[in-house]
Amino acid sequence: MKGRRRELCVAGPVRVNLADNDYLGLSQDAVVKAAVRAALADGAVSASSSPLVRGYQEIHAKLEKTLCAWHGFSSGLVWNSGFAANQAVLGTLARPGDWVFVDRLAHHSLISGILKSNARLKRFPHNNLKQLKEALEQTATFDGVRWVVTESVFSMDGDGPDLRALAELKQRHNFVWLLDEAHALGWYGPQGQGRAAEAGVVDAVDIFIGTFGKTLGAMGAYSLFHEPLLRESLVNHAGEFIYSTYLSPLMAAAALAAIGRVRELAPEAKKWREKSTRLRELLRTHHWDTPPGDSPIVPVQIGKDETVLALGSHVRASGFAVGAIRPPTVPEGTARLRLSLKSETRWEDLEELVQEMNTWRNAQTKL
To answer: Is residue 281 flagged as an active site residue?
Structure first.
């Protein structure tokens, strides 16, 4: 389909990077780089085997303990990627016959895991807890396990559900709550632990998913549990864990250092969030379609595939790396620019970006 073909391009240098998910710039952080150099000097580049053969090393165990202490969970497991974590956790722990209620805009990895499990999948409208409540009430007499799966910050919309309301729903309806916090780490929480910590609902979350490849500037992912038996089940039954060469010790070292940096930087989060809110207000002032919010992800809905590609090309030529996102990543008719803010993004650069967007739009109206 016209405007849908995807091409793999080498990422070149840009003046202002608003495309990737390195929200705090930790992939370039001196402390994180030094930790990787030290790990390289002391050990190997690769884990070189499955974690159940010899790939699970002391640094992986240390990372698990650090993550559990940071987030307030009793056990955890490190994965090679966020996709592997989500697919494995849901594909292994959810069982045929279970009900899984999932937000309609949930990440593909979550849907893939649910489908793998052969559980009964029911999507509820995006962030619509009223309809989720109705679905839970309709299955109140169900004898099996019910799951609720959502994200705290959605990767293409930059919004999220009311986590306190979800915790209250869980008190009234018995379900297993899986929360993916991949895009909330660093930006929210008293120590950058995410929105569940900020909302005070960590104890209500049964399974917490986080990544190293976004805010933490490394690679890989993790899942955390209050119930240690869930970890044991994954170690014994998840093919994504059992049959893959494990995460590089260098990436584990990077993640450990990055957690420390996130804790140090967390007091500054208020100003980053204010910058996001201010940018959205500026965009709306200039009649661009963007929702309110304060997450690092600022979507600007354009509509047509060809239009968002043209706008994206224009701003990239002006030195701004942005995401031009089209279906099927987002629903039909909602192609958008995805602006990924960084803690160090200068306000002057964001003003210039909006000016470039306006220049492009004005030129189109004159054609």
So the answer is: no
Catalytic residue among 22, 29, 103, 151: 151
Euclidean distance between CA atoms 102 and 149, whole angstroms: 5
Catalytic residue among 60, 71, 170, 183: 183
Q: Please tell me which residue in 81, 86, 152, 155 is annotated as part of the active site.
A: 155
151 as an active site residue: the answer is yes
Query: Cα–Cα distance between 286 and 46 in angstroms, integer?
Result: 50
155 catalytically annotated: yes
From the list 71, 107, 170, 342, the catalytic residue is 107
Buried b (16+ CB within 10 A) or exposed e, 139-160: beeeeebbbbbbbbbbbbbbbb
User: Tens of pLDDT along 69-116?
Assistant: 999 999 999 999 999 999 999 999 999 999 999 999 999 999 999 999
DSSP output for 322-338: EEEE-TTSS-TT-EEEE
Which residue bears the tokens 């594909």?
91
Residue 31: other Cβ atoms inside 10 A: 13
For 275-284, what is the mean pLDDT? Answer: 98
Q: Which of 307, 314, 358 is nearest to 334 (CA)?
A: 307
Report the run of H or E that residue 211 belongs to, with start and end.
strand 207-211
Kindly report the number of other CB atoms within 10 A of residue 52's CB atom.
13
The yes-or-no answer on residue 168 being catalytic is no
Backbone angles phi, psi at 192, to 5 degrees: 75, 20
Distance (Å, rounded) from C-alpha 335 to C-alpha 305? Answer: 6
Residue 12 is predicted with a pLDDT of 81
Pairing between strand 16-18 and 320-325?
parallel
Helices 249-265/30-42 angle, 10° precision: 150
Question: Would you call 107 a catalytic residue per the annotation?
Answer: yes
Active-site position among 64, 157, 180, 305: 180
What domains appear along the chain, each with residue ranges and CATH number? 16-21+296-365 (3.90.1150.10), 28-265 (3.40.640.10)
pLDDT digits over 145-161, tens only? 999 999 999 999 999 99
